[in-house]
């Protein structure tokens, strides 16, 4: 009845609601708000797109219940203002059009507020201490019992406004180190009154909030609570305590959504938004334990992106539903594709965390307010996707030179606009560098992405010519209306004596070259690529030394991926990083370096990996200028970058090449 994934697409009852399947869009923040924190048409369109994609519940994330005492970074939706009801109603309407249910996350940041946005410039929490939000360390003012009552009532009022605006349920955020979790966690709650000490006391404010919502919204309005199944930090709420907390909640709420970790730990994001080094569904075991102890539905979240994997968890009764955020950014139509038997066309999230890192204040200096996805060029462009796509007036011929990510995306973009497309690749297969780069286990989703693009191009009817290097002569023979040059970048050749040694391998060729099965490894360059390869080799048991001339590893990594990479390096004893150290030669003894104090050191090596970066093939690309009526350059041949830039640049080079 439900195709390949009968459990995943079976209906689920939550309170009085019926979810059409077991896929939930985890809370994602709204952007492009008014100055008063109200939703605009541009804010709503991403949620409409998610609903169109087939998820059962669409959740508007991070919505403030009491902005006077709890505003974390200014540009956040607010439910303590009636002026926002119009936008909220419009949002729930758009979600309902596609048969999805509308949910909204209720949040008070407590000590994670930025004081400059709060009344009187203060941050409030369960106990005194310091918060690290905003521009530095700030004192925390302990909430009085009367203030706690105000905030509890604010949760109920916020839920009532959401209900009036057509939302089917609310998700109360009681995890991740926000206010309700701060009360639950002994690390941030040292109170001696009825809100501190015992677990029942620390849970009291959450139960009061649930009661207040029930009182104002009625028995049939669905209440979902989001908890961290384990704070994973010293003196935090433990797994056993959260299970007992969940038992208390289950008497008052309709569903429990189980995440993990606590922002009071500065590295919480590694597990909260599971890094590429953690297995898919790494936090689901927390949901499984809670499900054994409660009778209400339990939702798991944490790096899921494969329908077969989700089907297994639900069919075995380990959890009741699965929530995703990044996976639905990568492909909003993941649920619909899985339902229709097109799961091999899903664009899988590669967990680069680019989407999150650009706004990950206070750890990044500026909140850009917009993000890109490394595998979905339409991310952040919901309005254009929903409203403005149109076929061209005439069908033009497009020739794409290069079968890497930028070239494949260019072919798909041009095909989406109705062009007749030919793609030429000088090697024997499509996919480019990601096929090899994705060989390490923690990067396999990158390889899968390249394979998906290649398969998608074939299904679009694009003419594929392998083992064909594009030259100006070939362009003139094919005579396209548009030529898209996507020939990529090449490794930087270090001007160092001895780099022609047989032990030296370029990082981009590492997995396609013969290399010794064991022995010492030296990696020249501690950027993103060098560190990822070093970690992969060290995890395989090799002794690896990374030589980095600056004072920091992986400055080109997104912030959250940098944290994960740093953590992996620190816990891998066979990996050593030498900062402020420059390679000056390669000789028979190994890699000769000069450290920050001017001392010369030789590191023995059986394998030497050059990871000094990439440089654009500009000269090669520019030879095509004038060879077709329109010549467009895309991807790394313009300037070497990361896959995100190549995907975005390549797709729209094809999509926008034809204007009429």
Topology:
Layout: E1 12-14, E2 17-19, E3 23-29, H1 41-52, E4 57-64, H2 85-96, E5 101-107, E6 123-125, E7 129-131, E8 138-142, H3 145-164, E9 169-174, H4 179-184, H5 199-202, H6 204-217, E10 222-228, H7 239-250, E11 255-259, H8 269-272, H9 284-291, E12 298-301, H10 307-315, E13 321-324, H11 326-330, H12 334-339, H13 354-357, H14 382-387, E14 397-401, H15 405-416, E15 420-424, H16 433-437, H17 444-459, E16 463-465, H18 472-478, E17 482-485, E18 489-491, E19 504-506, E20 520-524, H19 528-539, E21 543-547, H20 559-570, E22 575-578, E23 582-587, E24 590-594, E25 600-603, E26 607-610, E27 614-616, H21 618-622, E28 630-633, H22 643-655
Parallel strand pairs: 3-4, 3-13, 4-5, 5-9, 6-8, 9-10, 10-11, 11-12, 12-13, 14-15, 14-17, 15-16, 17-28, 19-26, 20-21, 20-26, 21-22
Antiparallel strand pairs: 1-2, 7-8, 18-27, 23-24, 24-25
Helix pairs in contact: 1-2, 3-6, 15-17, 15-22, 19-20
């Amino acid at each position: 009845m439900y195709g390949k994934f009968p459990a995943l697409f079976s209906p689920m009852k939550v309170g009085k609601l019926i979810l059409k399947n077991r896929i939930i869009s985890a809370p994602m923040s709204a952007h492009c708000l008014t100055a008063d924190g109200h939703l605009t048409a541009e804010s709503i369109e991403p949620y409409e797109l998610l609903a169109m994609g087939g998820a059962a519940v669409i959740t508007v994330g991070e919505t403030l219940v009491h902005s006077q005492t709890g505003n974390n970074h200014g540009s956040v939706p607010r439910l303590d203002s009636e002026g926002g009801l119009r936008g909220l109603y419009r949002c729930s309407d758009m979600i309902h059009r596609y048969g999805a249910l509308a949910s909204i996350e209720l949040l008070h940041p407590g000590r994670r507020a930025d004081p400059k946005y709060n009344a009187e410039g203060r941050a409030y929490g369960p106990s005194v201490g310091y918060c690290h939000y905003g521009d530095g360390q700030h004192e925390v003012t302990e909430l009085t019992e009367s203030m706690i009552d105000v905030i509890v009532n604010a949760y109920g009022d916020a839920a009532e406004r959401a209900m009036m605006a057509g939302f089917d349920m609310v998700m109360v955020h009681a995890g991740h180190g926000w206010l309700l979790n701060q009360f639950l966690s002994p690390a941030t709650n040292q109170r001696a009154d009825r809100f501190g000490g015992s677990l029942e006391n620390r849970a009291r404010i959450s139960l009061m909030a649930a009661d207040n919502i029930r009182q104002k919204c009625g028995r049939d309005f669905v209440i979902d609570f989001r908890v961290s199944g384990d704070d994973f930090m010293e003196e935090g709420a433990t797994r056993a305590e959260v299970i007992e907390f969940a038992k208390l909640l289950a008497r008052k709420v309709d569903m429990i959504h189980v995440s993990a970790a606590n922002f009071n730990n500065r590295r919480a994001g590694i597990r909260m938004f599971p890094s590429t080094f953690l297995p898919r569904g790494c936090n689901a075991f927390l949901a499984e334990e809670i499900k054994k102890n409660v009778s209400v539905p339990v939702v798991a979240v944490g790096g899921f992106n494969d329908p077969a994997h989700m089907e297994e968890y639900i069919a075995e009764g380990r959890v009741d539903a699965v929530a995703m955020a990044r996976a639905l950014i990568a492909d909003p139509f993941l649920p619909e594709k899985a339902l229709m038997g097109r799961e091999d066309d899903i664009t899988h999230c590669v967990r680069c965390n680019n989407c999150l890192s650009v706004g990950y204040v206070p750890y990044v200096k500026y909140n850009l307010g917009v993000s890109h996805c490394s595998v979905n060029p339409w991310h952040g462009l919901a309005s254009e996707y929903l409203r403005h796509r149109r076929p061209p007036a005439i069908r033009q011929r497009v020739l794409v030179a290069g079968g890497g990510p930028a070239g494949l995306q260019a072919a798909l973009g041009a095909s989406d606009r109705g062009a007749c497309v030919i793609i030429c690749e000088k090697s024997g297969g499509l996919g480019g560098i990601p096929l090899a780069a994705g060989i390490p286990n923690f990067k396999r989703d990158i390889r899968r992405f390249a394979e998906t693009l290649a398969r998608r191009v074939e299904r679009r009817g694009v003419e594929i010519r392998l083992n064909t290097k594009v030259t100006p002569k070939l362009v003139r023979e094919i005579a396209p209306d548009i030529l898209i040059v996507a020939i990529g970048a090449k490794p930087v050749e270090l001007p160092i004596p001895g780099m022609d040694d047989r032990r030296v391998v370029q990082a981009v060729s590492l997995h396609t070259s013969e290399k010794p099965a064991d022995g010492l490894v030296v990696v020249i360059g501690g950027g993103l690529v060098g560190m990822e390869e070093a970690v992969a080799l060290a995890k395989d048991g090799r002794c690896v030394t990374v030589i980095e001339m600056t004072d920091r590893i992986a400055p080109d990594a997104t912030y959250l991926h940098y944290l994960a990479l740093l953590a992996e390096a620190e816990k891998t004893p066979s990996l050593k990083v030498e900062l402020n150290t420059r390679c000056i030669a390669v000789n028979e003894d190994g890699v000769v370096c000069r450290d920050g104090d001017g001392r010369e050191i030789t590191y023995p090596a059986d394998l030497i990996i050059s990871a000094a970066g990439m440089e654009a093939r500009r000269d090669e690309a520019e030879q095509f200028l004038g060879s077709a009526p329109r010549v467009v350059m895309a991807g790394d041949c313009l300037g070497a970058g990361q896959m995100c830039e190549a995907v975005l640049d390549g797709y729209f080079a094809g999509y926008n090449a034809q204007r009429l």
